[in-house]
Amino acid sequence: MKRSQVPSTWVSVDQAVKWPARTQCFAPTVKRSNPIKPRLFPQNFTSAASQRQQLFESESSRSRSDFRNERSSLLNRVRIVPASPSYFTAKPTFTDSLLELQALLRKYQTLPLTPPGTAPQVAWKTLAQWQAANGDEPVKPSKYGRILSALYRLNQIHPQLMPEEVQIALDKNKKDFNPYEIKTKPSFLDRFGRAYGVGRRKTSSARAWVVEGEGDVLINGKNLAGMFGRIHDRESAVWPLKVTDRMDKYNVWALVEGGGVTGQAEALTLAISQALIVHEPLLKSALRQAGCVTRDRRRVERKKPGHVKARKMPAWVKR
């Protein structure tokens, strides 16, 4: 359709839409004499800043204690708080124990210590005992050694200045029975002036009674030469008297049993030494230097299967 064929009258937009797609139409803007005025209603608008201000004013009116109580009660209802910060570690009990001891070390590291070798002897719990008392946590011996090192260091604090909390930590890791507190009963001379001593070596045991005399020695009712044929065994039996130059000042009556000749002679050495110390306590240092006071606990090592002896192996043959 040509431009000259467009109707002279204006049509509405709805009528123009019904025309064919290729038909061009002109929809003029409708002008109103009285424009529509919007009706305005008063409303109260609040911004985010004003909301925060109102919340702050309402919270500030309450006391701090009430706010903390409400917050703590809310947290208790929402989640369970672990009793220890080490709860999420692999070994919480071990970690807590180690951190507690290390904190005590840092706190009391300036306190005076006892002189070397004079600290109280304490028997600490073994790793198995510590695990049994703390829920059987899988702790390596090297890790438990760190706890023992801290305990040794805290135990060196002077007893007169020992803090109470340190003493509680030490008592918690001690054994129920302390073998170092056992004191041997002092020996005395009997009404006949005799001193008694006991000695052991390998499977042999000896009991000796020593009294002042002229140097007589009877062992199982026999003299020294009749009991021990070897000179070395004779010297071993009376070595405490010989090293202290008391051979002609004391008489010895002894009973030995078990083991062999060498074991009986060395068991008699320890028995005579103990009895001699009862007569003259000042000889203990000299006898200790001579090796007559300390018991020799060595034993013969057993033979193993496939070995010629305890450790000897048969000759290896390639073919």
TrEMBL record:
InterPro entries: Ribosomal_Su5_D2-typ_SF, Ribosomal_uS9, Ribosomal_uS9_bac/plastid, Ribsml_uS5_D2-typ_fold_subgr. This is Small ribosomal subunit protein uS9m. It comes from Aulographum hederae CBS 113979. Belongs to the universal ribosomal protein uS9 family. The keyword Ribosomal protein applies. PANTHER family: RIBOSOMAL PROTEIN S9, SMALL RIBOSOMAL SUBUNIT PROTEIN US9M. GO terms for biological process: translation. One of its GO terms (cellular component) is mitochondrial small ribosomal subunit. Keywords: Ribonucleoprotein, Ribosomal protein.
